[in-house]
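Example (one chain per record):
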Amino acid sequence: MSDEPARWSRATIFPDMWTDPDDDPRNNDGPSPEGELESLEDALTNYRMTLRMKCEGLDAEQLARRSVPPSTMSLLGLLRHLAETERDWLNWISDGQPLPKLYGENDGDFDGAVAEQAEVDAAYAALAREQAATDAALAEHPDPSERLGKDRIAVRELMVHRVEEYARHCGHADLLRECIDGRVGQ
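Predicted structure:
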């Protein structure tokens, strides 16, 4: 008998998918995005949704479960990390005083990801709040070549960085989720 969970998927049409195409909230039968910024925003929205999908249906203990020692990575830690990262991005484009860190320094986003429902609820709330704040700030700058903040980062560069950060962590979430309950898929 093995402690490893059996691999499985909810998909019935394509067994390597997370869910069937008709049930996938990321599917959009409408027109594709027009323009560079809209395409980047669409990719970001889909990666954000993918991360939430990888976390759905898990309890606090499962979300806080660490990957492999000595790593502190967990799904809950990823939610907290991305909230912190959204705040960092907002600070990058701001000309004002930077907002303080959410979870302190030195891996606090992962170290503080403990198996308590209050921590899970707080992580989801922080992520939604920080995403909305960064999105709202960037909505005021529709020109992808516009440079913002003290370091004069281009909107385009920031958007690409956001997409790559979520994409990288969705890959981590795939592996974390499979280790937790065996669920696999895109």
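Caption: The two ends are 28 Å apart (CA to CA).
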